[in-house]
């Protein structure tokens, strides 16, 4: 009989078995675990992660699955991963459930984002688990203070939104991250805060009435309606073990509400804190001050499965704590392979020695790691400094130090950052925790405007348009520099102008660049007036809306788009999906009363007479 079958047959009567000394130690990843096993009092629980032989590469799985719609990818990858993980985990999981019934194990958490099971159990049970052939190694995963708590509080409110030019996106392009979902993996979020309550994601698969109401009693039916493995996960999930209500990710601290407010806070309470106030927040809760690694891996898995566009994660493990760096790296890579971009804090340990200064997973090569600056673009005194090395990490063995890998990737304001205070009001905190959600918000804005860009292309776009600080080029203090929303959109927005302020008395010439992406090369385009750039607008065939509002300068816009003053208002996109348009506004040609208003344009493309795409607007401010 095979080991798997034997365990399945015996699990109902399972009792801890003693393994040989060689079996006891060969699979224990850390010396600390050896020592705990040898000295643990009878019945004391130890939290470990059981990592199985088959480790997953989602990029390879994507090749096996073949092309599919982006919306179908997360579930398809989940299903394929389960086909691999379940057979390997089955006997171990059944054994653990048996010990759970006997009161010898709890906190059992199987994963498929990578192949592992977390559990808290006794030394004797761990010894038995070490003898299971399918288990590759056992990682000690104690609770750690992973949340990057602020280093200072109070002080002058930050100039963060102005510093990174967020208002440019909001005012010039109506770009607020609309349509994007940002998962904030933290201590939870107070979704009732006035600045957050209108921007909370509602799980469409659990929203039985389709009304988008947060915590709608009619949706709470005790059934896993969307079949994702979580019952009544209406707005997110709590993966910590301090609550009996797993589907309630309410903040049980304040850190998570502060970081969430920096992503989606809409200013209802009087202070505009959010970079992307048009995005939706998916609150995911881990433990308040101390977390197990697997809590965060579960959170990442949930966010990716539920198709979050961006993860903001203001947490990390010091290398001295012995995190499973290989497992972190694979899990981050797999999360991003599912289409969810990861933005992670570098850490608050500037005084520690390299290459162990940046925390894990902020040291993972593929993710976007964030350092902190102040309002004068100086590096925050606490912001962790690279480089990092991976040469010592089995399974990867790359980026040897020196020189190592440059981290962080970018920086953002994180000193005296004002954001939401628990369930009402505001407070200022400092840390790379505060810098990270700024970058997550910027990522939401560009992903909203440019869904055609890959996660790596978005990361490169953030870096290439950042304000270079410190040593020229990318460096280990600032990364590529402090993120700059205006520079980013000036280079990557689907429609952009060379000037955004025009003079009513002097007139203006405005050159518009159309960047519809390679996928729309050769399509017909036309540029139209977009009065204020906001809906309600005109619905075109194919369900696309191009905002065409009848405001005070609408008729002027229409006149311009149908006159000799508007060159190339219709045409064909080139082989790169690009086009250009010039608007010439004669001196004193704008109507009286137009000063202080906005002249706006947008464009649409068509295939076979049907609209395929509509762009963001550009809003030109009319000056005297």
Keywords:
single chain; alpha/beta; 7-stranded parallel beta sheet; 6-stranded mixed beta sheet; 15 helices; globular
In short:
The chain is of the alpha/beta class and about 625 residues long. About 25% of the residues lie in helices and about 20% in strands.
How would you explain this protein's 3D organization?
The structure is a single chain. With about 625 residues, the chain is an alpha/beta fold. The strands form 6 sheets. The protein has a 7-stranded parallel β-sheet, with helices on both faces. Strands 15, 17, 21, 23, 24 and 25 form a 6-stranded mixed β-sheet that branches. A 4-stranded antiparallel β-sheet has the order 2-3-1-4, sandwiched between helices. The protein has helices at about 5-10, 20-25, 30-40, 60-65, 75-100, 125-130, 160-165, 165-175, 255-265, 295-305, 325-335, 430-450, 455-465, 485-490, 555-560; strands at about 45-50, 105-110, 115-120, 135-140, 180-185, 235-240, 280-285, 310-315, 340-345, 370-375, 410-415, 415-420, 425-430, 495, 500-505, 510-515, 525-530, 540, 545, 565, 570, 580-585, 600-605, 610-615, 620-624. Helix 1 (about 5-10) packs across helix 5 (about 75-100).
């Amino acid at each position: 009989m095979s080991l798997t079958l034997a365990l399945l047959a015996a699990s109902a009567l399972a009792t801890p078995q003693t393994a040989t000394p060689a079996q006891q130690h060969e699979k224990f990843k850390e010396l600390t675990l050896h020592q705990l096993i040898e000295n643990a009092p009878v019945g004391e629980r130890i939290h470990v992660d059981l990592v199985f032989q088959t480790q997953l590469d989602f990029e390879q799985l994507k090749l096996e699955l073949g092309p599919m719609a982006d919306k179908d990818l997360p579930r398809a990858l989940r299903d394929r991963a389960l086909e691999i993980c379940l057979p390997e985990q089955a006997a171990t999981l059944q054994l653990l459930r048996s010990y759970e019934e006997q009161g010898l194990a709890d906190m059992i958490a199987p994963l498929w984002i990578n192949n592992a099971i977390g559990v808290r159990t006794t030394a004797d049970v761990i010894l038995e688990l070490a003898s299971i052939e399918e288990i590759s190694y056992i990682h000690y995963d104690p609770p750690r203070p992973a949340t990057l708590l602020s280093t200072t509080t109070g002080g002058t409110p930050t100039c963060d939104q102005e510093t990174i030019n967020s208002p440019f996106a909001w005012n010039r392009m109506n770009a607020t991250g609309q349509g994007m979902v940002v998962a904030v993996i933290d201590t939870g979020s107070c979704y009732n805060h006035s600045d957050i309550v209108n921007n909370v994601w509602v799980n469409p698969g659990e929203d039985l009435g389709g009304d988008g109401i947060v915590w709608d009693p009619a949706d709470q039916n005790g059934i896993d309606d969307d079949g994702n493995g979580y019952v009544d996960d209406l707005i997110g999930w709590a993966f910590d073990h301090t609550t009996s209500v797993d589907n309630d990710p309410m903040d049980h601290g304040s850190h998570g509400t502060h970081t969430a407010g920096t992503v989606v806070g809409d200013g209802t309470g009087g202070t505009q804190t959010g970079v992307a106030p048009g995005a939706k927040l998916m609150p995911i809760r881990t433990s308040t001050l101390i977390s197990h690694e697997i809590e965060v891996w579960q959170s990442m898995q949930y966010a990716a499965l539920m198709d979050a566009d961006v993860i903001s994660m203001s947490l990390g493990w010091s290398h001295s704590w012995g995190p499973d760096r290989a497992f972190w790296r694979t899990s981050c890579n797999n999360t991003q392979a599912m289409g969810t971009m990861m933005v992670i804090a570098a850490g608050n340990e500037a005084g520690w020695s390299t290459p162990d200064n940046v925390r894990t997973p902020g040291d993972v090569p593929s993710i976007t790691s964030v350092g902190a600056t102040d309002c004068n673009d100086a590096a925050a005194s606490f912001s962790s400094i690279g480089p990092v090395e991976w040469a010592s990490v089995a399974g990867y063995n790359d980026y040897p130090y020196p020189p190592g890998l440059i981290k962080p990737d970018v920086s953002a304001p994180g000193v005296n950052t004002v954001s939401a205070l628990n369930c009402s009001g505001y407070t200022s905190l400092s840390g790379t925790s505060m810098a990270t959600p700024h970058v997550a918000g910027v990522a939401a804005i560009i992903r909203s405007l440019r869904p055609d860009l890959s996660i790596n292309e978005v990361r490169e776009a953030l870096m290439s348009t950042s304000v270079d600080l410190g040593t020229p080029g990318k460096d280990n203090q600032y990364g590529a520099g402090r993120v700059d929303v205006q520079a980013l959109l000036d280079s990557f927005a689907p429609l952009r102008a060379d000037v955004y302020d025009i003079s009513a008395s002097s007139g203006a010439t405005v050159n518009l660049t159309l960047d519809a992406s390679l996928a729309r090369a050769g399509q017909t385009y036309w540029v139209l007036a977009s009065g204020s750039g906001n809906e309600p607008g005109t619905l075109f065939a194919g369900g696309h809306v191009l905002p065409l509002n009848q405001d005070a300068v609408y008729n002027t816009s229409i006149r311009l788009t149908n006159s000799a003053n508007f060159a190339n208002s219709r045409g064909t996109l080139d082989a790169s999906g690009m086009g250009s348009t010039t608007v010439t506004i004669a001196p004193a040609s704008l109507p009286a009363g137009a000063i202080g208003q906005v002249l706006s344009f947008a464009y649409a493309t068509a295939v076979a007479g049907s609209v395929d795409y509509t762009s963001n607007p550009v809003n030109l401010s009319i000056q005297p």
